[in-house]
Amino acid sequence: MPTDNRVSTVLARRLGGELLRLRDAAGLTQPQAAQVLSATAAKVAKMERGWVPFRDPDIVALCKLYGVTDEAMVRSLLSLAKLDRERRKAKGWWQHMPIVGGLGEYIAMEEVATRIRTWHPALVPGLLQTPEYVRALGVTSNWSHPDEIEALVTSRIKRQARLWGDSPLEFHAVLWEAALRHQVGSVEVMRAQLDHLVQMAKLPHVHVQVLPFRAGRHHGVDGSFNIVSFAEPGALDVGYAETIGSTLWAEGAEANEAYGRAFARVSRLSLAPHDSVSLIDAISKGM
User: Fold this and answer.
1) What is the b/e burial string over 229-262, where b = at least 16 CB atoms within 10 angstroms of the residue's CB?
2) Same-domain pairing of 106 and 121
3) Do residue 271 and residue 222 come from a single domain?
């Protein structure tokens, strides 16, 4: 993954899109915006597409030009720019692991997030997987070489460090019952994974819910997705989903609200955390 400034990031694209919306609302052109920045129209175009980091003076100047008088909105844009700059400068462990692949940008945001909500209809979420479960997944996927599988295990364990420490990540996972009954690896591997889920669910910042079969057809999406939240005021959530051969980012407020509503629905239909743990424990003992 590129680590310099010549990369379009999710956060920068969101910020650029918001500035583009404000420029259009003000009825101004890119050359007019460039003039106030003493820059070129090409630079403004790159900013609006998220290809360059944003300087605070540029954001303030553009907001003034666009007639933005809401100080809270300006602060939120500055906070988003600061978060993007920090992400670009991050020298994380994932940058040295080819196995991470396209997950690099997501992991970078995971590292600075304060809360993640995730829906998984088929598998246990990565942050709650045991090493043996990860190895079993690696064997049945494209990772055929033992070294590749161990690298996958190492990267997963490093990501799980966010659930520990002085400022642990708040993690809320909703799983379909199928994810608990879908045997990955041997019976022993699966039982250990379910027991690990029970233990992790006891942490005050980890919330695990199960959507049982008896709830009927759920109204969530077919595939898994994550919603990443940040501490900065005004920093909107980021929705993330993987499909076959591609990665989807929810970069606008409207798309993020759709992910939020989908998660709220499956959470509302699911068992309470205490009852969810009881079901997980019962499935484990029944194996």
Assistant:
1) bbebeebbbbbbbeeeeeeebbbbeebbeebbeb
2) yes
3) yes
